Structures are given as C-alpha cells and as structure tokens.
Amino acid sequence: MIYAILVLWIFLAAIIIPERRGIRIIIYFAIFSLVTALSFFLLGSPDVAMAEAAISTFSTIFFVICFEKHFRLKADGEGDPEKKEVSKAAAAKKYVLPLLLIVPLFALFIFFRPGPEVSTYLKDLYITRFAQDVGGVNAVTSIYLAYRVYDTLFEALVLVIAIVAVSHMSAFKEMTVPDGEHSDIERDGLAVFTIRIIAPILLLFGVYLVMNGHISPGGGFQGGVAVAAFFICRYMIYNIYDMPVKKIIRLEEVLFMTAVAIAVFGVFLGAGTFVPLEYLRLYQESYLILMNILIGLKVACACIVLFYRFVAIERR
Questions:
Q1: CB-CB contact of 93 with 264 (8 Å)
Q2: Do 201 and 73 lie in a common domain?
Q3: From first to last of its 316 residues, what are the pLDDT tens digits of the chain?
Q4: How many whole angstroms separate alpha carbon 288 and alpha carbon 156?
Q5: Residue 275 resides in a domain
Q6: CA–CA separation, 120 and 125 (whole Å)
Q7: How far apart are CA 117 and CA 106, in angstroms?
C-alpha cells in the first residue's frame, strides 16, 4: 500500500514541475499535499501528516489569492499574442528532465529505507521514557519540545530570519499603507457566506491544536497555521488589507526569545529536577502547553506577515 502511495507521489511531482497553468498548479499542489499527508500517516507520523495538511490549507489559500490578484482570473494566457509556440523537443524536456532527477531519488529512498535490522535504540528510548522525562501523552510533542528542542529552536530562528529578510528586502519599504489591495471575494455572496462559517472554525481548531498538542496530534506549528488562515479569511470577507506588520515582526521576535529562555530554563538547565514530585506532572504539562502556545503564536505571526506583505500590500 505504502509503495503504491509513494509511486503516486512521484507521479504527481512529475506532473507539477513542468506545468505552467496557474489553476492547474493549484489543483495539483492540493492533490500532492493530500497524498503527502496520507504517506506520512501510513508511515506512522500522524503529527507530521497534520502539519502537512495544515500548511497545505494555508498555502492553497495563499496561491488562490495571489492568482486572483496577479492574473485577474484570466484563462491561462488565452488570447496572448506574445505566447510562443513550444517545440516538441522543449515540451519533452519538461517531462524527461524532472523524471531523470526524480527516479534516481526515489530509487535511493527505497534502497536506504530502514529495515528491521536497523538499530531502534534511540526510538525505543524516546518512546519508553518520554512520559516520565517530559510528560504528556503525545510522544512527538515531547520529542520536539524536549529531546530535539535544538532542532525546534533552530527552525524557529530560520523563520524569524526569513520574515525579517522579507520585510527589509521587499520592494515596498513602508510598513503601513493608507490603502491596499482589496479582495474580490466580496462579490460572491456564496463564497462570503462559506468563509464566514469556516473562519471561526479555523480559529477554534487552531486554539485546540495548540492547547492539546501534548495529549493529541497537533501542536504549535499546526495550530499557528490554522490561526493565520483565520486572519486570511478576515481579509477576504472584510477587506482588512493592512496589519501592523512592524509590530507583528517585533512580537514574533519576542516570542522566539521567550521560547529560547524557557527551553534553556526547562530543558538545558533541568529545572524539572528541582520540582517536588507531587508537582512534577503539573510542571511538565505547563511547560509543554506554554511552549506550544509560544510556537503557535510565532508561526501565526510569520504566516500573517507573509500573506499581508505580498498579497494585501505588494500586489498593490
């Protein structure tokens, strides 16, 4: 079953790479992300699958809005007098070259796929001790917020740097604007009605993912994307085109520094060893929830800045 899904995965990637029509790219990306999430789930990583599904939801909305603003819903370049005829050789290269890259990578993946003889010492150690060492019920959350907190902080730092770079290297230097690009969704009553129903669900779902990441699949990364999607819905419904980008960037930096400080205090310095045994469980769950909240807010800030910067301001 998993091999059939992986073959479909590679096939979809081969279709996406040479595609040039915007609407089809959006559709293909949505299907590709669905297959990706299913692959992660079948390989035993439900949290990663949920993260892929959440990010796909955000990116699909982002692509649709960008497509709407940039192309004004024109039909794939039809009637463009400057559109050149593509030769058969050039068209063949679009498919042959990606396959020459993808097929060897897929072969390497199958060849190096871990078998039963591979040592699982570290995995077994994490799974058997996470409840005692870190707390919570979700092993994935305990791993990325304790055992592998170095990786989590590094990923968060990369996101901070990316947002700062986007703001400072952007063609539009101002942080606020008197007017911005308005959404055309408001012209469609059915779309507005649907989004108004979806928006509060997204916000509640994001809060649920963040607050319950230590006891169920979810966490700060997934919840943050869902919260950001709520603000995108606000833009589409009410034409709230401008956000305090500078303040949001500062908030993201403060959240990152706070997460680093708590990680240093709670993990690196081993503050849990000084907590009385009767309060240890409360301390562990408080640490996991607080870290998920900080990461969720940070991811939400990053996604909001990216969206409003490029869609609501830059497109103007």
A1: no
A2: no
A3: 777 777 787 787 777 777 777 677 777 877 888 888 888 887 777 767 777 777 776 666 666 666 655 555 454 444 444 444 556 666 666 666 666 766 776 677 667 666 666 677 777 888 888 888 888 888 888 888 888 888 888 888 877 777 777 666 665 656 566 655 566 665 667 777 777 888 888 899 999 999 998 888 888 888 898 898 888 887 777 766 666 777 888 888 899 899 999 998 888 888 888 888 888 889 999 999 999 999 999 999 888 888 777 666 655 5
A4: 16
A5: yes
A6: 8
A7: 21
- Structure tokens, 52: 């892929």
Residues 103 and 148 in one domain: no
Residue 138 Cα distances to 47, 127, 215, angstroms: 9, 10, 5
Note whether 186 and 84 are same-domain residues: no
Q: How far is residue 4's CA from residue 39's CA, in Å, rounded to a whole number?
A: 10
Q: Which domain holds residue 52?
A: 1-117
Given a contact cutoff of 8 angstroms between Cβ atoms, the answer to whether 228 and 311 are in contact is no
> What's the total number of domains in the chain?
2
Q: Is residue 70 located within the same domain as residue 162?
A: no
Residues 147 and 280 both lie in one domain = yes
Check if the beta carbon of residue 173 is closer than 8 Å to that of residue 80: no
Domain shared by 101 and 16, yes or no: yes
